[in-house]
Amino acid sequence: MQDISDKESAEDTPSTPWPGSKGDCQQTDDSSGKETQLESLLEDLGLEHHYTEKLSLGTVLQIEERTITDEPAKCISDLPWYFLKKLMMVNVTARNVKCTSECESTCEDASGNTELDLDDLFDSLHSGDVLNPLDIITALFLCSDGFVRQEMALKMSMCQFSVPLLLPNCDTKQCTLMLWAMRDIVKKYRPQKLLESKGFIEERIVVSELPMISFVRLGECSLSKSETLNKLLSNSQQYHDTFIHHNMECGDSSRRISNGLTEVTWYLPCGNKNMDIFSEPVAVANLRGDIASFETQFSFLCQTSAAVFVFFDNLDSECELLTNQHHKAQIFLVGNHQRQSFSLDALKKVANKLGLTKSNILLKAKHMNDADFIKLLQKTISNVVENTKMKMGIEQMADIAHELGILVDEDCAECQTAKKNADAITAEIQDTLKYKEAQLPLQGQIWKELTVLEKEEFRLRKVGSENIEKYKSDLQIQKRKLRVQQNSCDMSNAMTCFINAISSPGIERSYFLKWMRMNLDNLSREKLSGLRELYKKKCENSENKEEIFSTRMFFQYSVLLDLLSKDDFENYKSYICSYEDHVKKWTHKQIEEHFSKGDKVFEFEDRHVLSSINSINDAINKAKTEKSGNVKTFVEDVCQELGDKLVISQDALGAFMILNNADQEQFAHWLTECVKDMAQALREKFKTETIQIKLENLLVKPQSELFSKVIGCGKQCPFCKAPCDAGASKHGEHFAQLHRPEGLGRFRWDGTEKLVTDICSSLVNSDMRFRCNGTKGEYHPYKNYREIFPDWIIQSDVSLEASDYWKYVLAKFNKEFAKAYNAEPADIPETWKTITRKQAEASLKESFNIK
Question: Of 187, 314, 378, 698, which one is least surrounded by beta carbons within 10 A?
Answer without folding.
Answer: 698
